[in-house]
From TrEMBL:
Pfam families: Mur_ligase_C, Mur_ligase_M, MurD-like_N. Belongs to the MurCDEF family. One of its GO terms (cellular component) is cytoplasm. This is UDP-N-acetylmuramoylalanine--D-glutamate ligase. Its EC number is 6.3.2.9. NCBIfam families: murD (TIGR01087). It is an enzyme of class 6 (ligase). PANTHER family: UDP-N-ACETYLMURAMOYLALANINE--D-GLUTAMATE LIGASE (PTHR43692). It comes from the Bacteria. Keywords: ATP-binding, Cell cycle, Cell division, Cell shape, Cell wall biogenesis/degradation, Cytoplasm, Ligase, Nucleotide-binding, Peptidoglycan synthesis. It is found in: Cytoplasm. The gene is murD.
Length: 484
């Protein structure tokens, strides 16, 4: 049976829902409303009319907009706008349209907000009471989301991971309803974009993993970016924070939650907080009880995912899981079985005693710093893409163990000016194949060739995944050729 959500029931049948952007979330929302016979208007800069019409051919009441410049026409009779995450409210080709919508009190929401309304309706009408875990942060979101879901499923409950991870929450919910297999736990990865236009997601436990400058081009300034991240605490019963993060700590006064637990690199000092202690040259993950007593969780050597940033990700996941009532000692044995995410510090192969590492998911400076700190070896770093307004001088203190940097992408020359200030050696590459060849030519035995771009990939590739796959393919081809 298909349940109409509360939002759909309250919509005037004579009004229109405007779907702005037809990516994964935009199409999912369009199908959700169209199946319920709600008039929708589809707008996308790259709208392929014939393909889109074919996809939605079985539905009625769909309006296709080719030219969105006539904003009055586009907004005619619109009651709500569902905006795709990549579209900035204040810095995009749709800004005039969105500003006019705000002036006319047209609500602008995300696909996650549509999901949240649907979930509230299911709770009210069908007594569906799942646990909701929400995860945000500049870096580590996907790892913590997938690890949390993996551990909960290993324990025996049914958890699904949705959101910014690439799975539309509303599509997964729709399928779960139709198949009569609703999850026990929703694990939702939330970007700053999604949080900006999500208002009614009721969260059992949320975490802010870390905050570092990112997406300044989208948010216009750092304060707006920080506010979007902190806003996850608004509807959360319990909040998990990184106690080592200065941006989070400096904004604690704006967080009303009384139930806050923390994780960090340091020894935990408060009951139920988690941290890392050094013991016999090993890093042990622990939980604090009282009177300087710690409960051992796991030796970091037993984990497949390596690096301090990943040990913090593990602690965050465990705190989230414990907060929904699962005894975490029953899932410790599953921790070594988690193999990590593709394109995140992924070993590709070794050529002439040089390791090639794919960290294409590092789309900001903070992620690249984490990758650099994971290896003691000399590095050949492949860096660049769309810089998103980041301050690359923040990267300079972490480049002391770099043999050479290979710059790629549209903002390569901008990054080069920053590197010149610190006399760091760099060269340019026009494409990934050239970057891999130049890395091979400049690397010495024992080095690491690290693709960790600190930038968006969309100037050269369709996604960070395609960038990582291209790098991996070129490296494997190089390995094959070097054996001839």
């Amino acid at each position: 049976m298909f349940y109409r959500n509360e939002m759909i029931e309250n919509i005037n049948q004579n009004s229109v829902i405007l779907i702005l952007g037809l990516g994964i979330s935009g199409k999912a929302v369009a199908h959700w409303f169209a199946k319920n016979n709600i008039p929708i208007r589809l707008v996308d800069q790259n709208l392929n009319l014939s393909i889109t019409k074919k996809e939605f051919a079985k539905y009625k009441n769909i309006d296709y907009v080719i030219n969105h410049n006539n904003i009055f026409s586009v907004l005619h009779n619109v009651s709500k706008i569902v905006v795709s995450p990549g579209i900035s409210l204040g810095n995009s080709s749709f800004s005039n349209l969105l500003n006019l919508a705000i002036k006319n009190n047209i609500e602008i929401i995300s696909e996650i907000e549509v999901f949240a309304q649907a979930l509230l309706n299911l709770k009210k009408k069908n007594n569906y009471q799942p646990k909701v875990i929400a995860i945000t942060g500049t870096n580590g979101k996907t790892t913590v989301t997938t690890l949390t879901s993996f551990l909960i499923n290993s324990y025996g409950l049914y958890a699904v991971a949705v959101g910014n991870i690439g799975k539309s929450a509303i599509s997964v919910l729709e399928y779960a309803i139709i198949s009569n297999n609703l999850p026990d736990v929703w694990v939702i990865e939330l970007s700053s974009f999604q949080l900006t236009t999500t208002y009614n997601l009721h969260i059992d436990v949320a975490t802010i993993l870390n905050i570092s400058p990112d997406h300044i081009d989208w948010h216009l300034n750092l304060d707006n970016y920080i506010k979007s991240k902190i806003s996850i605490a608004k509807n959360a019963k319990i909040l998990i924070i990184n106690r080592d993060d200065e941006y989070i700590l400096n904004n604690l006064n704006s967080i009303n939650s009384k139930n806050i637990y923390s994780f960090g690199i340091s020894k935990p000092k408060y009951t139920n907080d988690m941290g890392i202690i050094n013991h016999n040259c090993k890093k042990l993950l622990v939980s604090y009880h009282s009177f300087n007593k710690y409960s051992y969780i796991i030796d970091s050597d037993l984990l497949f995912i390596k690096g301090i940033h990943n040990y913090l990700n593990v602690l965050a996941a465990l705190l989230l899981i414990r907060s929904i009532g699962i005894p975490i000692e029953k899932i410790f044995s599953f921790l070594p079985k988690y193999l990590g995410e593709s394109h995140r510090n992924t070993f590709i192969c070794r050529i002439n005693n040089v390791d090639y590492i794919n960290d294409s998911k590092a789309t900001n400076i903070g992620a690249t710093i984490a990758a650099l700190n994971s290896y003691n070896n000399k590095k050949v770093l492949i860096l660049g893409g769309i810089s998103k307004g980041q301050d690359f001088s923040l990267l300079l203190p972490f480049l002391k163990n770099i043999r050479i940097i290979i710059l790629i992408g549209i903002d390569a020359y901008h990054i080069a000016k920053i590197l010149d200030n610190d006399n760091i050696t760099y060269i340019y590459a026009n494409n990934m194949k050239e970057a891999v060849i130049k890395a091979y030519q400049n690397a010495c035995e024992g080095d690491i060739v690290l693709l960790s771009p600190a930038c968006s990939s969309l100037d050269m590739f369709s996604s960070y995944k395609q960038r990582g796959e291209t790098f991996s393919q070129e490296v494997l081809q190089l390995a094959k050729n070097s054996q001839i």
